[in-house]
Design a protein that fits this description.
This protein has helices spanning about 10-20, 25-35, 55-60, 75-85, 110-125, 135-145, 155-160, 170-180, 195-205, 215-225, 225-235; strands at about 5, 40, 65-70, 90, 125-130, 150-155, 185-190, 205-210. By secondary structure, the chain is an alpha/beta fold. Strands 1-2-3-4-5-6-7-8 form an 8-stranded parallel barrel, surrounded by 6 helices. α6 (about 135-145) packs parallel to α8. The longest helix has 13 residues, at about 110-125. The chain is globular and about 45 Å long. The chain starts with a strand and ends with a helix.
Length: about 240
């Protein structure tokens, strides 16, 4: 069964746009789990424009499923993760000024850096995942860093699916087969939505987890958060 981890960055964005504590991030995280989600994901950035570092520290009070923190492993991020000790840390090579994640790691070029970072997290019993493009050599490179999992960057798939090109799944299936061969767990995320998630799940062998935020929150504006969480769980069965 593929787990659904809900990224709550957009809840924090809405809160921050007005000030105060509405919507309440902790209550929303608690509710999302009660609606059936199997994990909560956050992606704090250095400018704290949505998720704040203090949010990351407070969320363990209410997260009783899996807690996944994504981000670029700069010193402040690493210090935060080592303090909070989430279930999983997902390493993403996003630039400081990036609006959203836009590329996976070059696991060959950055191998030594990733080996050191991952070793520190794993020494603290934190499961590790590396954000990668669906390229066989990058998956193979990820296996040599000591990571537990990869997270397939799914924007290209989502873009092709929207155009009606279902062949856009092929590189992801091939990358997943490589991951299976080298013993890596497989997560996925970015631009997955109610339209394209089921087909992705059907074509990725041993998909462990998807992290979905922007689309899920946007769809919830029309259909309601509880309904949408349940709809995703059906897609992932």
């Amino acid at each position: 069964m593929t787990k659904l981890s809900v990224n709550i960055n957009k809840i924090a964005t809405l809160r921050n746009s007005r000030g105060g504590n509405v919507p309440n991030l902790l209550k929303t995280a608690k509710d999302i789990q009660e609606f059936g989600a199997e994990g909560i994901t956050i992606h704090p950035r250095p400018d704290e424009r949505h998720i704040r570092y203090q949010d990351a520290r407070e969320l363990p009070e209410v997260v009783y499923t899996e807690y996944n923190i994504e981000g670029n492993p700069i010193k402040s991020f690493m210090d935060l993760v080592l303090e909070v000790k989430p279930t999983q840390v997902t390493l993403v090579p996003d630039a400081v000024d990036a609006i959203t994640s836009n590329a996976g790691w070059d696991t060959l070029k950055h191998k030594d850096f990733l080996v050191d970072v991952i070793a520190e997290f794993k020494a603290n019993k934190i499961r590790t995942s590396i954000f990668v493009d669906p390229v066989a050599k990058m998956v193979e490179g990820a296996a040599k860093t000591g990571t537990d999992r990869i997270e397939l960057y799914t924007e290209a798939y989502a873009s092709e699916f929207e155009k009606g090109n279902k062949d856009g799944i092929k590189p992801y299936t091939e990358a997943a087969l490589v991951a299976n061969e080298v013993g890596l767990g497989i997560n996925a995320g970015h631009d997955l939505n109610l339209e394209n998630t089921a087909y992705f799940k059907q074509n990725i062998p041993n998909l462990l987890e998807v992290s979905i935020g922007h689309a899920l929150i946007a769809e919830s504006l029309y259909l309601g958060l509880e309904n949408v969480v349940q709809m995703y769980l059906q897609k992932l069965k």
